[in-house]
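wait is this the right file?? whatever heres the structure
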């Protein structure tokens, strides 16, 4: 008898899902009313579990997004330039990046930094869309730094004038916005301190502009960013002609 009842329930379940697939509400109601109490309980349980999985998955994504957003600087903090750039602008040589502590420095080709920098350095690498907003790069340099506990990358780009550098900053900002999450930013040309934070593929990026140059640092987290910016601030200054602390 149990086997016959189970077989009958299986038939009812199949007919129920067939009716759901065909969007026939009357057939679904009729079939559902013929199920015994246990079968109905199993069906409700399965639907409940599926809904719970969907809800938990969406909540998990929301928590991850909220944690990442919360770790970025607040709106109030954005009113003051980070890393004391408004008091002492960090500017670097675009021909020779500084040696820092016990970090080993490995040169990086500009073509591998990101598509925007690659396009600035060589128009042949540009896509049709990039060519519309491309700016000429006068000089640039990039390197990876690594020691036993940390690694980061540093890129310095120099342009003919501040107006061209501003366009370059906007191009880099648009690329970061399209490929990751953005933190605080101030990139209007009227602002004396222009910068932005970006987060993509597990890397935190901080990019800032000074006169006719742009600098960008990539690290794993904010603690490392603080350390790198302090190293840059205390590194022996090597400033190219044309750059100033204004």
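ok assuming it is, sequence goes like this
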């Amino acid at each position: 008898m149990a086997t016959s009842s189970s077989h009958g329930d299986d038939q009812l379940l199949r007919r129920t899902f067939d009716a759901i697939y065909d969007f026939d509400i009357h057939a679904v109601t009729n079939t559902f009313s013929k199920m015994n109490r246990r079968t109905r309980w199993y069906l409700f349980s399965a639907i409940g579990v599926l809904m719970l999985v969907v809800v938990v998955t969406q909540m998990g994504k929301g928590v991850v997004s909220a944690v990442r957003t919360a770790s970025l600087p607040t709106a109030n903090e954005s009113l003051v330039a980070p890393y004391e750039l408004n008091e002492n602008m960090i500017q670097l040589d675009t021909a020779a990046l500084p040696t820092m502590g016990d970090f080993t420095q490995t040169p990086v080709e500009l073509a591998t930094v990101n598509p925007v920098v690659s396009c600035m350095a060589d128009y042949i690498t540009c896509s049709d869309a990039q060519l519309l907003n491309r700016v000429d790069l006068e000089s640039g340099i990039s390197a990876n730094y690594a020691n036993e506990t940390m690694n980061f990358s540093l890129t310095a780009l120099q342009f003919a004038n501040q107006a061209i550098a501003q366009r370059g900053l906007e191009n880099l900002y648009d690329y970061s916005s399209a490929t990751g999450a953005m933190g605080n930013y101030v990139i209007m040309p009227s602002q004396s301190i222009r910068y932005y934070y970006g987060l993509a593929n597990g890397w935190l990026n901080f990019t800032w502009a000074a006169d006719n140059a742009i600098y960008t640092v990539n690290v794993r987290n904010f603690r490392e960013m603080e350390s790198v910016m302090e190293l840059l601030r205390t590194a022996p200054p090597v400033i190219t002609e044309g750059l100033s602390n204004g």
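The two ends are 91 Å apart (CA to CA). so i think its the right one actually
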